[in-house]
Write a structure and sequence with these properties.
The complex is a heterodimer of chains A (about 300) and B (about 280). By secondary structure, chain A is mostly helical. Chain A has helices spanning about 1-5, 15-55, 70-80, 80-95, 95-110, 120-130, 135-145, 150-155, 170-195, 200-210, 215-240, 245-250, 265-275, 280-305. In chain A, helix 9 (about 170-195) crosses helix 11 (about 215-240), helix 11 (about 215-240) runs antiparallel to helix 14 (about 280-305) and helix 13 (about 265-275) runs antiparallel to helix 14 (about 280-305). Chain A is flat and about 70 Å long. In chain A, about 40% of the residues are buried. Chain B is mainly alpha-helical and about 280 residues long. Chain B folds into two domains: about 5-55, no CATH class; about 60-280, MetI-like fold (Orthogonal Bundle). In chain B, helix 9 crosses helix 13 and helix 11 (about 225-240) runs antiparallel to helix 12 (about 245-265). The longest helix of chain B has about 30 residues, at about 5-35. The model of chain B has no long low-confidence stretch (mean pLDDT about 90). Classes of the chains: A mainly alpha (about 300), B mainly alpha (about 280). The interface between A and B is large, with 100 and 100 residues.
Chain lengths: ~300, ~280
């Protein structure tokens, strides 16, 4: 109400009263309209997140009492080889991110030229993105079948005898990486293409007049112009990659040979819902949450500094 | 711009490379469809038959009795439709308020909501599970539906951006005419931002349809499971018998609705993704 009187100090008294009534109505409806998402946030995100932090300091098993045990869960984590393995696996799987981004940038550069069938290409490359991860994982599990899978039959054309991909510690991670690249390619390609199309032709024409080579045009015009998109994609891919679960749960239900495909979220899920060590699992969830929080903060900071904006 | 011979050559090479790439993208999906029409022996034929000699529709009949596929579809539809319809209403109302109305602490509240994007689902799922099990919601669809009804931050964010392009004068004029705020929302805002709402709604629908982690936490009984869980269970139970045609047929059925939506609205979906960076 204070703000209202500040704004409407001038003008006659009845006018002020009428306007302030209008403003009060606007205020009430404004709050009413934003109330559902605010309640949803408090009840289903903030409260559970804080409760998880609290739970991580207890011996919570989801059934009985929660006893405060201080930092014990975190101390145990540092000596837990399964935790290290799952962290290592999660980061290892992120190798696919730069490969996928490079491929999708090349594809977008190709699609940005005057060639026939660009719409068809966009649709085809995008189909894996909209397809359900569960169905895709089922499909690829079958494609990686050692004896009759599509992948080994393809390799057989070149006389290569492929391994049983998902049952070998050496091949299970590359297999999952290949699948995630295949699934995400269309999405990155689309964002790159949108960025490329927003680059004005005049830059290239000017560079051409100056006698710039194709590569130096890419290096000095294209690359800086798509840098914000690259950054956005790297960040969202890291956030998504640190939460990989579905692929692992379906393709290697036990976490793969010698736990070599188990990810952090997979381990959290196992600990919390199979072993009912909810306090311990919460400690891992808190670490994961902190990691993602920091990555997002970096993104915000970098966005402030970046001269180009996503929208 | 005149195209030189060299440029035409380059374009032809790029076209061929894009074609090869497209083949790699589509081949696994075609193989899935091909497998679903095979009999159990043809699956193991070497070299593989891309078009099965013995073309079988039988698996597409069998899937409906081999597992709770129908109830899976219905459950997924219940969750996705309820959440997107009501959630879109609450989200767009909030976006309208954040973009066009004046009330104290508006930007602070908006930032607070945005901060939820920094909190990943795995960080809240354990506490949420305990909370919902206390309400006896486990093994019902409620944990998948209720949180979504309160709106979706991503959608609020993008609709709010979109609303900034609408001049305030239209809204002020309606206010002077004595239109209520809900009236302004329903008669002015919604018609103006309908395309943006529709695109975001479709993306959200696809996201919920494809969801896997929340359903696997909450849904135990076969008859309450959503489609993605049902096909995952098909995979788990029929792979041992090597009944791949059956598994693939069920997976194809689970993909079809989304594929059809995508092919119909591909232009709008692709445009909206390119602007907002939301995958769905």
């Amino acid at each position: 109400m204070k703000a209202t009187s500040d704004i409407y100090q001038e003008g006659n008294a009845s006018m002020v009263k009428k306007r302030s009534n209008l403003y009060r109505k606007e205020k009430i409806y404004g709050f009413l309209f934003i109330l559902p998402p605010v309640i949803g946030f408090l009840l289903f995100t903030l409260y559970p997140a804080l409760y998880s932090v609290y739970g991580s300091f207890t011996d919570w098993n989801g059934l009985g009492q929660m006893n405060f045990i201080g930092l014990d869960n975190y101390k145990t984590l540092f000596t837990d080889n399964f935790f290290y393995t799952s962290m290592y696996n999660t980061f290892f799987l992120m190798i696919g991110i730069p490969i996928g981004l490079l491929l999708s940038l090349l594809l977008a550069l190709g699609l940005n030229r005057k060639i026939p069938g660009t719409t068809a290409f966009r649709v085809i490359y995008y189909v894996p993105v909209i397809s359900s991860l569960a169905a895709i994982s089922i499909l690829w599990q079958w494609a990686y079948n050692g004896d009759y899978g599509l992948v080994n039959q393809f390799l057989g054309l070149f006389g290569i005898k492929g391994p049983n991909w998902l049952a070998n510690t050496a091949t299970v991670k590359p297999a999952i990486i290949l699948m995630t690249i295949w699934k995400g390619l269309g999405f990155s390609m689309l964002l790159y293409l949108a960025a490329l199309q927003s680059v004005s032709r005049t830059y290239y024409e000017a560079a051409e007049l100056d006698g710039a080579s194709g590569f130096s045009m890419f290096r000095h015009i294209t690359w800086p112009m798509v840098k914000p998109v690259t950054f956005f994609l790297v960040v969202t891919n890291i956030i998504g990659g640190s939460q990989i679960f579905t692929e692992i749960n379906i393709m290697t239900p036990t976490g793969g040979p010698e736990y070599s495909s188990a990810t952090v979220v997979f381990y959290i899920w196992q600990k919390a819902f199979e072993n009912l060590q909810m306090g311990y699992a919460s400690a891992m969830a808190v670490i994961l949450g902190l990691f993602i929080f920091i990555v997002t903060l970096i993104q915000f900071k970098m966005n402030e500094r970046s001269s180009f904006d996503m929208d | 711009m005149v195209y030189s011979k060299q440029q035409k050559m380059t374009n032809a090479i790029i076209f061929i490379i894009l074609c090869i790439g497209a083949v790699f993208m589509i081949l696994p999906l075609l193989w899935m469809i091909s497998t679903s029409f095979k009999n159990r022996e043809a699956v193991f034929a070497l070299p593989p038959e891309w078009i099965p000699k013995d073309f079988q529709f039988a698996k597409y009949v069998e899937i409906w009795t081999a597992g709770p596929l129908m109830s899976g579809i219905i459950n997924s539809l219940i969750v996705a439709i309820t959440v997107t319809v009501i959630g879109t209403l609450t989200s767009s109302l909030a976006a309208f308020a954040f973009a066009k109305m004046r009330f104290p602490m508006k930007n602070q509240i908006f930032l607070l909501l945005l901060s939820s994007m920094m909190i990943p689902y795995p960080a809240v799922m354990i506490s949420q599970f305990i909370m919902f099990s206390g309400w006896e919601w486990v093994d019902t669809l409620l944990p998948l539906i209720v949180p979504g009804l309160f709106g979706n931050v991503v959608m609020i964010f993008f609709l709010r951006q979109y609303l900034y392009s609408i001049p305030n004068a239209i809204i002020e004029a309606a206010k002077i005419d004595g239109t209520s705020y809900f009236g302004i929302y329903a008669r002015i805002i919604v018609p103006l931002i309908k395309p943006a709402i529709a695109a975001q709604l479709i993306l959200w629908f696809m996201g919920i349809w494809n969801d896997y982690l929340p359903p696997i936490l909450y849904l135990n009984s076969p008859e309450i499971q959503t489609l993605q869980l049902v096909i995952a269970n098909f995979n788990a139970s029929y792979a041992i018998q090597s009944d791949y045609p059956l598994i693939m047929a069920a997976s194809v059925v689970s993909l079809l609705p989304i594929l059809i939506i995508f092919l119909i609205f591909q232009r709008q979906i692709i445009e909206s993704v390119a602007i907002s960076g939301v995958k769905g």
